Each structure stands twice: as structure tokens, then as C-alpha cells.
Amino acid sequence: MNYQEKGSKVYLFSIVLVAVMGGLLFGYDTAVISGAEKGLQAFFLNATDFVYTDVIHGITSSSALLGCIVGSALSGICAQRLGRKRSLVVAGVFFFVSALGSYYPEFLLFEYGKPTYELMLMFNVYRIIGGIGVGLASAICPMYIAEVAPSEIRGTLVSWNQFAIIFGQLVVYFVNFLILGEHTNPIIEKTAENLYIVLPHSDQWTIFTGWRYMFGSEGIVAGLFTILVCFVPESPRYLALTGRDDKALSVLSRINGVAKARMILAEIKATVQVKSERLFSFGVMVIFVGIMLSVFQQAVGINAVLYYAPRIFDSMGMGNPMVQTVIMGIVNIAFTLVAVFMVERWGRKPLLISGSLGMALGAIGVALSNVVDVPPVVPVVSIMVYSASFMFSWGPICWVLIAEIFPNTIRGAAMAIAVAFQWIFNFIVSSTFVPMYNMHLGEMGDKFGHMFVYALYGIICVIAAIFVYKLVPETKGKTLEQMSALWRKRDKAED
Fold it and tell me: What is the reported pTM?
């Protein structure tokens, strides 16, 4: 067979395509809230047994992120004990259950369409279940792709996972737009600090039905992913780590050809003489860099923009916010492709640094737009610049790096810690965005909050650029096994 000599790119791309569907579900699940959150807010504002405040809405909109923290923290244990493949099957099941449960949270327990405190808690439970799936997929999908990909195209293939995340967000923006159709978002009016009412002429279909279809639509993709992932092979590095060398060689041969597969397997075995090592066997710095990459990816504030995009564009007073959200999704796709095609040519660090500075420029542009009078197009374009800069840098490249920098023997545990920090800070940023965005101060009113939050994100972006320049190693062209030697050398130098 030809693949015995050179391997099969078709085989490689087909299994990577299935794996990146996990990224698509990641994006779909985290962004579905952007179109549904106003209808959801209006639904629970109709409750008579509790007051649905700004803070509660912020937590409800971000509750999936609590599950993401749990899922990512468990991903290391799942990856080590169940393997990469079976862990992805588990993630798919969580996605599917969450989609159906979020669509119909009253199932068996509550009266349909009657908002209550208990129903709100049950809705959050289903969203947390979906978050566990996202947490698992967010760590294991890039890990799996990195472990099957040849080193010369690994960065490109892992970047496709981020493309799938953004594509999933774009798909759900379109799906939400189509589901809304001729209906309109509810009109919510603030009556007092942290208190709101739904105006009586609001579209009742959007309040009681529309958001359900948005959440439920994810079930189709989740079911397909769960079925397809059953047909992909286990990661060859996991197979070698667990002593199944023949199976590892078989998978590597189909991807790389037999001769190269034997060389790769020998390199893998040389680094996994011990099946697992202590987390800090390669020093503290590798763990610190991995954690801070994850922290900065969220601390720059991007997910606050993605989750609340329609609300933000609505506040800028420039046309249909749902249309602008879809346009932003298309821009995000285009700039993610920049990273996909340039990551192996330009390297990881240049993309991260330039993206950080571009985000800072966009964030400061939005902040200044709330201090001086400018046409609405200025903050809209600034938001687009901010988002686009993230998409060719921190979006994909962070995932590439945290899938690459950790040595084989600690990758599962180290990635679990790094990704858990990512979701912790995602929750912090997303749950604090609305209260900060709505802050009032003197004559500036709510414009102070708008200015403050983007100025804060802009400053963090600059700090992120400095961090990358000083501490992050360039991994372009290096094998996963070479990263072990790099960190051992650094650890000895620090001693």
C-alpha cells in the first residue's frame, strides 16, 4: 500500500476533522447564549417567587462555565484512564444531554412554561452538564490532534480546532438569527438599580419559546459528533504510553508511513520509559507558562464580547445587532484562517504578540468612544478589530502552545490544570462583564462602565504581549519529544 511508504493524508485529515467537531461543539455551546440570553432573561423576569436580578442573570448566562471548570479539571484523569478517544465520547454525551435539557428544563419535574426559582436552578444544572462536555473537549481535542499530527503541520492542524470553535460560534449566530426570524427580542426596561421589567408589548414567542429552540439545536451536532468519534483511532502516543506499541505503530504508519512511524515510535518510547512523572519533574516554569497562557487568553476579555455581542451592538445604536453579530462572526472566521495558514510560517510568538497589541488598540478604541463623541461606526469597527486580532492570535495559538509545550509524561495532568485555569478566568470575566459594563459614575452615567471595562481589557492585552515576549518559548518545527529536552534544559539552567 502507498500509505506504508508515505502515509495517508486523507486518513489523517479525516480523523482530525472528527476531532475538530468537538471544537465546533465547544464554540456552539459557549456562544448559543448570545442569542438566547435576552429571551431567557425576560422568561425568568416573569417569575413570581423570586427576583431575577442582573447578578443572577450574569451567573445564569455564565453557568456553563462552572461545568467547563469541572470538565477541564477532570480531563487529565479522563485522558489518562479512559484514553483520549473514549473521553471525547463522554464529552459528546454531555453535550447531547445538555442540549435537550436546556431546551426542556421542565422535563418530568416542573410545569411547562412556568418560570420559578427551582426551574432556573434546573436550567443551570443542564447548562453545567454541557459545560463539563466543553471542558473535556477543550482540553482533549487539541491534545488528541497534537498527538496524531506530524510535527511539521501540527500547529496548522491544532489551529483548525480553533477555526472549528469560531465556526461553531458563527453557525450558532446564524441559527439564532434564523430561529428568531420575524420575531423580536423582548424589550426590557430598568426600573431601579439591578431591577428590570419586561414591557407588555414584547414578543411573547421569543420569551417562552425562541430561546428553547436555540439551545435545543445543539443536540443535532452533538449526536453526530458522538457517533463519529467512535470510529476514530486512539492517539498513538496514548497507546504507546499504555504499552500497546503494535497498535500505536499501526496508527502512526497510516499517518506517516512505516519507516517514519518506527522512528517516531522510538522517540516516543524514549520519553515514556516511565508512564507518568511528577507534575514538576520538568520544573515550575513549564506549568507556570501553560497556566498564564490560559489566564491571558481569557483575561483579555474576548468571551465577554462573544457572549454578549447582540447586547453590546444594541447599546451602540447602529442597526440590527443580530446582523452585526453575524458580520463579526464572519470576520472572526476570516482572521482565524490567517492563523491556520501562517502559524507554521510566522511562528507562535509573533502571532501572539501582534494579536495582543491589535486587541489593545481595539479595546482602547471602544473605551475612548465612550469618553468623546464619535459616530457609532467607530466603536463597532473597534470591536471588530479587537475580535479579529484575538482570532489570529490568542484564539488558536494558545491552544496550539498548551498542546505542544508539555512533555508527554505530564501532558494530561498539565493540560488539565492549564485549561481549568482558562475556564476559571472565563467564568470570572463573563460573570463580571455585565455588572462592570453597567456601572454608573456621575455625569458619565453608564458610559463610565463601558469605558472602564474596555480600558481594563486593553491594559491586560499589553501585559500579555510582554509576557509572551519574555517567557514563552517558540515551538515551531519542534517535535513533542523535543519539548521534554527543552524544559529539562531550562530547569537545569534555573537550578
Answer: 0.76
